[in-house]
Design brief:
The complex is a heterodimer of chains A (111) and B (107).
Chain A lengths: L9 H16 L6 H21 L5 E11 L5 E8 L6 E8 L3 E11 L2
Antiparallel strand pairs in A: 1-4, 3-4
Helix pairs in contact in A: 1-2
Chain B lengths: L5 H16 L9 H18 L4 E11 L5 E8 L6 E8 L3 E11 L3
Antiparallel strand pairs in B: 1-4, 3-4
Helix pairs in contact in B: 1-2
Classes of the chains: A alpha+beta (111), B alpha+beta (107).
Chain lengths: 111, 107
């Protein structure tokens, strides 16, 4: 097991996710072309802000979903094969009356 | 120098989805165990490839009601060794999207 010099700050990253999703999507109605572009921008912005935290020796994977709120049901899940002593993730869900958004950041330690 | 084989991962995952969702109709009571099964089976098969990678597998299963869903990802890693692959699958009543992210372990 590899012990990282600085642990990945899950809570600080959650604040970033909340901030980015909120500022992009608050009051936004679901619109296919707009959401398609926004989901990509949001992933890039989140990656940039997590990189700014300067956590050494971590590789980062950011996954974002934006979906329309109809009466449909859905389930999103993930599993990771990694070293739980050093690797972790951060997750946040945003909802308004017309859409939902999920952002996950996975952090993998590299010796 | 290892390279992530996306085609290999794609066929592995597609088979896992088929075996779990194959002939089923969307069922809210079962969707939790379905996503868990797809993800766990995919991971097990990826590990059997015997490559020194850490894996992140995500799965979204959605009822087909005409609602839109967009997904994006952005990764900060070593582009020579690390990689990703996405599998999209659907049947009459549901959509399924599985993402695999593979991060190389340096020994």
């Amino acid at each position: 097991p590899q012990v990282p010099p600085k642990r990945f700050p899950v809570a600080a990253v959650e604040t970033i996710l909340k901030d980015v999703l909120g500022s992009y999507l608050r009051e936004q109605p679901y619109e296919p072309t707009r959401c398609r572009d926004m989901v990509k921008d949001i992933a890039e912005v989140i990656k940039a802000r997590v990189k700014d935290l300067m956590i050494p020796r971590y590789k980062i994977v950011v996954v974002t979903h934006i979906g329309q709120l109809n009466e449909q049901s859905m389930q999103i899940g993930s599993r990771c094969l990694w070293d739980p002593a050093s690797d972790t993730f951060s997750s946040y869900v945003f909802k308004n009356t017309s859409l939902f958004a999920l952002a996950n950041v996975y952090a993998v330690y590299v010796e | 120098q290892m390279i992530f084989n996306a085609d290999e991962a794609h066929s592995i995952v597609k088979e896992c989805i088929e075996s779990v969702l194959g002939k089923a109709d969307y069922n809210q009571n079962k969707v939790n165990q379905w996503t868990a099964a797809i993800v766990e089976q995919s991971l097990t098969h990826l590990v059997k490839l015997g490559k020194t990678y850490k894996y992140i597998v995500t799965c979204a299963v959605m009822q087909r009601s005409g609602a839109g869903l967009h997904t994006a990802s952005s990764c900060f890693w070593d582009t020579t060794t690390d990689g990703t692959c996405t599998v999209r699958w659907e049947n009459r009543t549901m959509n399924c999207i599985v993402n695999v992210f593979a991060v190389a372990i340096i020994l």
